[in-house]
Amino acid sequence: MKSTKLLAAAILLAASSSAFGADAVVDEVVVVDTSYNWSGIYVGAQIGYAWGDSDVDFSTIPVTSNPEPDGVLGGVYLGYNAQLANGVVLGVEGDFAFADLHDGDGLASPVPLPGQSIEVDVNWTAALRARLGYAAGRFLPYVAGGVAFADVDHEGFSSPNASAGTGSDTFVGWTIGVGAEYAFTDRLIGRAEYRYSDYGSEDYAGTVNFPTHSVDLKTNDIRLGISYKF
Q1: Which of 6, 97, 162, 171 could form a disulfide with 75 if both were Cys (CB 3.0 to 4.6 A apart)?
Q2: Could you give phi then psi for residue 78, rounded to 5 degrees?
Q3: Domain residue limits at 109
């Protein structure tokens, strides 16, 4: 009888210890989930690398060119987040980046065109995007998309050193991307992001040496950023 009572007491003690441990784990999770709030205004700086694709098509002659500009970019961003009670984070953000994207390509045609080429340069990019994320404590994965802008120059060459004509425009298109942020402190937030941008195309009237043509631009880029939340 005594051994039976001892066994029952041991079982009760083990069960109470397990329940206490489970309560401690639950309490810890609750603390983590509510430890940080993403609401507020923030301003940051970013740097990245972009690679693109640009098709140049001539409307009056069977000639095309496909420069693929790539290079570094860097700039600033400013935004606002609102964190809801269920952890969803809604935001809006604008950014501007100086860019050094460049490439040249020869002309594709049924007949050889030696020495002739097109060069494309991207001087800056900008975007205004909406953001949707989910707060997991100090970690915030998100998706973002909106309108995108790029300042694009292009130049045609009838020979390696002879310019046939130039064009310059601000392209307007769209962008979408994914990223993640981590709050190192209550104010300092790091970021890594990928985005795809389609800036559309522009048409250019022809000249004697540079016939009527269109230029389009699409880019992929990876950016790293650091921001301060007010």
Answers
A1: 97
A2: -140, 135
A3: 38-229
More confident residue, 4 or 213: 213
Take residue 147 and report the two structure tokens written for it: 């309108």
In the three-class reduction of DSSP (H, G, I as helix; E, B as strand; rest coil), residue 111 is classed as coil
Q: Are 78 and 93 in contact (CB under 8 A)?
A: yes
15 in helix, strand or coil?
helix
Report pLDDT digits (tens) over 186-228.
999 999 999 999 999 999 988 878 899 999 999 999 999 999 9
Q: Does 114 share its domain with 154?
A: yes
pTM, 2 dp: 0.81
In degrees and rounded to multiples of 5, residue 208 shows phi and psi of -60, -40
- In the chain, how many domains are there? 2
Give the DSSP H or E segment for 210.
Answer: none
Question: Are both 156 and 211 inside the same structural domain?
Answer: yes
| CA distance linking residue 228 with residue 113, whole number of Å | 53
Q: pLDDT, tens digit, for every residue of 41-70?
A: 999 999 999 999 999 999 888 999 999 999
pLDDT digits (tens, 9 = 90+) for 8-31: 444 444 444 444 444 444 444 444
State the virtual CA torsion across 21, 26, 29, 35 in degrees, nearest 10.
Answer: -110
Same domain, 88 and 16: no
5 in the same domain as 91: no
CB within 8 Å of 31: residues ≥ 6 apart: none
Whole-number Å distance between alpha carbons of 230 and 217? 36
Reduced DSSP (H G I as helix, E B as strand, rest coil) percent helix, strand, coil of the chain, to 5: 15, 65, 20
Which pLDDT belongs to residue 114? Answer: 84
The residue behind tokens 């970013």 is 46
